[in-house]
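Marked as duplicate of an earlier ticket. Keeping the data here for the record.
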Amino acid sequence: MDSVKLILAALQVTSTAGNLAVKNDVVKDAYVSLRDHIQQKFVGKPEAELALSEYETDPETWEAPLKKALMQVQADQDAQVMEAVLYIMKFMQPRQTSWGVAYNALNSGGTPGLAIGDYQSIAVHSGDDEDDK
């Protein structure tokens, strides 16, 4: 999932029209912070401001215009925006299956690589196999 899609997912999942009822005040605060940072980037851009506002109630219709606006202001390059997104997604991650996709990556020592995404095929050889000798 690219960074802009991750921003859109965080906005949608925590908005009033989102699939989830967010009861955690910490997540609500992170959502408000994310929305506020994006609104600051959209100052003086009425089309972008409208797309952000309308996305909360109709994500399907407003996804393309909001995605375009986020890309134009390089929101995915803003550390505060991405910090809020990742914070939200940390709490929402168990619910990813309702989006039709779930990624859970845990790299705990010694792993030389990491692959995340659809259609991954990974073969791991530990050195204990007869073929490795």
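See parent ticket for discussion. The chain has a mean pLDDT of 75.
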